Amino acid sequence: MTRLRPQRLHMRTSNLVTHISHPTQHLPHSSRQASGLVNITVARRRYPSPPAPARASQPSRRLRCACRAQLPEQPQASAQPASKNPLEQLRVTTDPRRRSELLQQLDTCWSEWEELYQPTPAEECLAQELGVDRSTVMLAAVQNPGLSSLDAPSQVLPSIRALLSGGLSAQDAWFLASKRHQLLEEPAALSRWLDFLRVYGMKPRDCQNFLLRSQPALLYGTTLYQAGTVVSFLKGLGLNDDLLAARVLCVWPELLARDVEGQLRPVTAFLMSLGLEVAGVARVVVMWPEVLLRSVEGQLAPWVNYLRGLGCSTAQVADVICLCPHLLGFKPEEVFGGVLRALEAAGIGREDVRQMVTSSVAFLIAPSASTGVQAALDCLERHGFAKEQIREMVLSRPELLAVKAHDLERSLRFVYDTVGGDNGTVLACPLLLTKPLGQCLGPRYSFVQKQGLAHKYVGEDGSTFEFYKMLVAEDDQWCASLGLSINEYQGFKLVWDEEYSLKLHQEAANEFQAELKKLGIYEGS
């Protein structure tokens, strides 16, 4: 019997039938009928193996190898496939264009995809610890890519428990987590800052506001020692815990990262050099904490020098800072340039401005000063005052330019209609226009007429009314000069104010009605 060659037993399985049956041709006929060999052959033929692929030629094999070398490395086969749920894709997608495409897919099938939504462990932890509805957590995760990727046991859970132990309610903790999820990335730092804030007297709501406005870089890059020196410095100005927390630190948390000696103390020293006391500096800081973030040489000193160039004294500069410290946040040309240009167009030059500011700076710092000054000048021109007359009035009473245009209109109408005066009356006493009508002129003139005391204000010539004498004093002093009770005048003024307010409402309604009639849409009688 011919022996089988060993190497044939190592042939591919697809050729097994050929290599086993072929040697039997050399066996005797009886041996070729052996059932074992026949069974093997039949069994292999019933389940044929797929044909082996043809061996590629050498050039094509090299080409495929080169292509594989240029392709990026493929992920492991065990990695989870990307979700097809647009909601789940939104919670990890930051590209605006891609997010827009995903939202368009959800326009008509939001509810279907929401039912299939699979929350991450971080979302599950937030819902469980804070008692928030899962759909609410899902919306927060969709709106804030990165929230769902936080690690639940090492980041989310300890951070939430730190917030709750800091006195925040579950609702406040959820609001903070949904708006500033970056704070949850470092639970240890968050816990240390909460302890620090509570030691310095911050209430839970103040802690929440502080964390909402704080940048993660501040919390992770500023030491508590540095923050403590800043708090001690601010308390040295006389700020109590409530003001310091609610009006300063919660508004500008960045202050805690400032250097006391190199940045904060120079600012307070500069303000004191203008004549402000320590209490005055504290009021400025409370009104506008950002002043401590400003540079003395780059911003504060040039601003002060600009006002001095307009003719303001050091005391006036200090008053401006105390009244409107927020103006320090703008370039002086942006604040005062419009006012100066409006005055110059009315024939009031820089030398006139220097004279005006010696009496009052109200026209420079009034809200929307540029627009207000221009509106006041236009109002006076509409009522027939010449430019020279306007210049004469504002040089004597520059504060009238700080009065709103509609208040000027009402005062002028009162002078014309009730007093019976004219522009000459106003030129003789510009004080008539420096305050709103209901504050002084209206009630005092009406009270004098009702009490029959008008003769006390008749001039020496017997024909003029001395308005200045009636308007210049305070209410109590004025009533004492007449020998009347302040309570009696205040009761009269209250009634006068009510009647005048009703009159203004009726005039406004009539004007609105007239406008509707012009448009042809008035349906009343």
From TrEMBL:
<keyword id="KW-0809">Transit peptide</keyword>
<keyword id="KW-0804">Transcription</keyword>
<keyword id="KW-0806">Transcription termination</keyword>
<dbReference type="GO" id="GO:0003676">
    <property type="term" value="F:nucleic acid binding"/>
</dbReference>
<dbReference type="GO" id="GO:0006353">
    <property type="term" value="P:DNA-templated transcription termination"/>
</dbReference>
<keyword id="KW-0805">Transcription regulation</keyword>
<dbReference type="Pfam" id="PF02536">
    <property type="entry name" value="mTERF"/>
</dbReference>
<comment type="similarity">
    <text>Belongs to the mTERF family.</text>
</comment>
<feature type="compositionally biased region" description="Polar residues">
    <location>
        <begin position="73"/>
        <end position="83"/>
    </location>
</feature>
<dbReference type="InterPro" id="IPR038538">
    <property type="entry name" value="MTERF_sf"/>
</dbReference>
<feature type="region of interest" description="Disordered">
    <location>
        <begin position="72"/>
        <end position="95"/>
    </location>
</feature>
<protein>
    <submittedName>
        <fullName>Uncharacterized protein</fullName>
    </submittedName>
</protein>
<dbReference type="InterPro" id="IPR003690">
    <property type="entry name" value="MTERF"/>
</dbReference>
